[in-house]
Each structure stands twice: as C-alpha cells, then as structure tokens.
Amino acid sequence: SSGDVVYLRGGQYNQTLSCYGASAMICGEGNSGIAVVGYPGETAVLDCSQSTAFDVASGTLSDFTLANLEMNCGGVGRAIRASRAGDRRNLRVVGNHVHDARSSNSGAFGEFGASVDLYVLGNLVERTGVAGENNAHAIYHGGRGISDNVHISYNRIDTHLGGRAIQIFGHQAGEEMTGLVIRGNHIVNAQGNAGILVSHSDAPRGLAPSDPARGWIKDAQVDYNTVQDGAGNAISIRSIGADVNVSNNVLFSNRGSVYIDFAKSAHLSGNCMDKAIHSRIAVNGTGNQSNYPACM
C-alpha cells in the first residue's frame, strides 16, 4: 500500500509474474507510494534472463522507487520497461547495478515513455546492447506522450555494444518533452554511433527528420558528462524544436566530440574535448576547447 518500503534481502530472485499482459519480476502497474529497495549491506539479485525485472505494463504509476538492486539479465533481455501507454509520475530508478542486458530492441537497462518527474540516477550499467544492432540502447526514453522534468544523471555506462548509451527519441504524434536534463554521466566504450543522442520524433510519418512537426523536445540540458573511448560521436543533437545547452562536458577518444545536425538553438560552453565541435547550424557560447587533456 502507499508509503510501504519493500526490502529485498540478499540472494537471487527469479520469479515471474503476470503484469497485465506482460511478464515481469516486479509489476508496477497501478501502484503508488511504494519503494522496492535492496536491503542495505546485502545484494539482492534479480535474474532478468527470463523476464523483465521491472515492468509498468500500460497504466498508472505514481511515486515509485526502485533502488539498490542488482539486475543480471544473463546476456539476454532487458531490465526495466516503463514505456507503454499510461500516466507515470515521480518514478525513481536509483543506485542499481544492471549488467548483461542484451535486448536487441529499445532499452536494455531502461526503456521509458511518457513521464512527469522521472529520475534515473546513479546507476551502474555494464555490458549492455547487441553488437551491430542500431536499436539496442542502454538508457532510452521513447516519448509516447507528455513528459516533463526528466533527469538521466550521474550514471556510469560501461561497454555498451550497440545503439546509443543514452537515447532520447520520440515515436508518437502529439508527444512533448520539457525539462530534459542529462548530467554527470560517465560513458565508457559505447560502440554505437553516439554516446548521448537527443533526437527528433519519427512521427508524423513521411516527414523529414528536420521538419518542425517532429520537434517534440522543447529544451535540453546536457552538461558535466564524461564520454570516452566511443565508436561514434560523444554527443549528438538532432532535435529541431529544442533549445539545447551543451556545457562543461569532457569528451575524448571518441570518433567525434559534439555533432549538431539541427536544433532550434544551441549554446555550447566550457566543453573540454580532443576534437572540434561539428555543427550544421550557428551555435553560441564560449570556453570550448579541443586540446584535451590540456583543457582539464
């Protein structure tokens, strides 16, 4: 009931529940004011090799916390899914250790949809994605409604094999995102074409990606991230409706540093990189340096 904290003691958990048409170990559907937390000083391991560790299915979720858990997906599947139709408010995913999640479609660690006050903070994400699979992302927000105050911050993502380590990409007409913050993440060895991608929607169909009708993100703050040793651009911006601020990031040993294809406006400042910024639009800002490590 609301206000409950459910502690999972140390050990391995592999039960599967029916979650309103989905299979999951923890079903968040219809719950509010609940926290599921690994017991302090112990390691509770959710075996997500057979089913998703946490699923919201399609419905209402309010004030729910998932914290201090290990999720071992055994080289298959995904850890968290909260992306289907529904009203989600104040979902917190904090301090978890997720590894070997290899979903070949969408988010291996977390796939999120329409949400207000979403906090994905301080998680350790290792060995995710599928080599050569462009749709296999680590942390992924796919729109599908109205989102506001979305924080993807202070996570470490190490060895993501395909797609993007963090992807924000819409899919539905009428969706909108405001208050997007991607801050303080450390991304190492992302083997897709971008470490962080802030992108357009693919709806409405039949329009160019740069068409204003696909500009679902209104503002985005991408700051204080470290992205290193990646096969693509460290940060890629392709969101026509967004006012984007990219600042104080450290970017090195990637194929490219910051790539801006299109945006409503772009402000870049204080970034320390080993490669120059590449932008197809006019940008403003000061203090960007491409002489890493001297700029540290």
Tell me about the largest β-sheet.
19 strands, mixed
Please work out how many helical segments DSSP would assign: 0
Unreliable runs: none
- Distance between termini? 49 Å
Helical residues, percent:
under 10%
Taken in chain order, the helices and strands follow as EEEEEEEEEEEEEEEEEEEEEEEEEEEEE
Strand content: over 45%
Radius of gyration: 18 Å
Broad structural category: mainly beta
Mean pLDDT across the residues is 92
Quantity of strands, as a count = 29
What's the overall geometry? globular
What does this structure look like?
With 296 residues, the protein is an all-beta fold. It has strands spanning 5-8, 11-13, 17-19, 22-27, 32-38, 44-47, 52-55, 61-67, 70-72, 80-82, 88-94, 97-99, 106-112, 116-121, 124-128, 136-141, 146-153, 156-160, 164-170, 176-183, 186-190, 194-201, 219-223, 226-228, 233-247, 250-252, 256-269, 272-273, 278-279. The radius of gyration is 18 Å and the shape is globular.
